Amino acid sequence: MVKIFNHYVSKLVSALLLIEIFTLIFSLYGAHDILVAYGYPVRPMDKTFFASASGFALTTVFSMAAFGLYHLEGKPTATMTALRLAPSAALGFGMAAVLLQLLPDMYFDLRVLAIAAIGAAVTILTLRTVIFRTFELSVLESRLIFVGEGALAKECSNLAEDKGLSKKYNIVGFVPLRMEECLVSSSAILPADESLFSIAKKHSVREIVVSTQNQRGGGFPLHDLLECKLNGIKVTGAAAFIEREARQIRIDSLYPSWLIYGDGFKQDTLRNVCKRTFDLTVSLLIFGLSLPVMLLTALCISLEDQGPIIYRQERVGKNGRNFFVLKFRSMRSDAEQSGTPQWAATNDARTTRVGRIIRKLRIDELPQIINVLKGEMSFVGPRPERPYFVQQLNEKIPYYNVRHTIKPGITGFAQVRYQYGSSVKDAIQKLQYDLYYVKNHSLFLDLLILVETLQVVLFAKGSR
After folding, report:
1. Does residue 296 surpass a pLDDT of 70?
2. From the DSSP assignment, how many helices (H) and strands (E) are in the chain?
3. pTM for the whole structure
4. In the UniProt record, does the keyword Kinase occur (predicted)?
């Protein structure tokens, strides 16, 4: 993993992004030279050619990201890659064509652009096939040792054993502390007759993860860990390892002293100004683009059952202040006639026919742009919850209120990483993603979440 503006990005994704941007830029040069070589009349290159090629590359990369080509879960096959690459290349070509025509004095030749899009798609598919197979080689694996053998060690090792291409680790073994129940395989326990540094050096270990809650007492190998650290072996705490690999902040590792003295959880004027500018720009742009869809949605809701079009629901915002969130009504008018708030369920019987469609496509969320423009919400942030549920969750989940230190959002890190929540267990998982966002939020992370939101909408992930 590499850390970019406080957000962890896999080395593979970073490498792919750089390689494919260069591939897309040079594909435009190659397409121009091919047409010239075969005698086709094309516009000569000028001083705007590189800027146009860069615009083509960025729009195509944005399109690829929206189709999930940089969200590498599991082991993507060549067929799976091709099925997403084809429409993303077509969309990137279309956006680049519109963009280059709208911008004054930019280089634009439709034939050059079309050949570049086809050539780049074929090249990227070939490169990805080679790169993915290369990353499967064991020589690229990073060797790990875990200190501990209990529940936390098992959880960390499960993350390290993830079969996805973005995580590649070889677990050498576990150092037993005899202070907790052993929940890992006995065959993976390391011998006690060798020092930790000797074992790490013998197995070319690059990192040691301290994965035990109990770090006090004579059984904890403090001096061994210091020896490893001073000899260039990385020593990482379990909380930091989980934050890096799962992009979550564990609630059982969140202590007041960590909040006060640790990195992150920063709220400064510059960040707030940048975020507000981002909110206004994105909200106005999406409002303008989606206005016809919103008008059609309003008409369909009105025709279906003559009920109200907009649904106002009280939610908890920044610093615990309540506000009314605006949504297109997707349920019957009497959905909560009992007066008691209910979690939304899969295939909820209260949902109308129009409601099922707009919830699947997330169209029901669009009126919340008004909440953003009013300053009650951000475009990206933790999803606002109802006061009834917030009160319950505050009592059951430690530090749940930390998510209320920033404005709630229309979309958020938990929304693109976790399915729709309908229980306390789901709320805990989503909170751990929200805490990661609160700790590490930046304009860069907001942009990534916005792109991942497009992927969620395109593939209707997590809707109910």
Report:
1. yes
2. 16, 10
3. 0.85
4. no
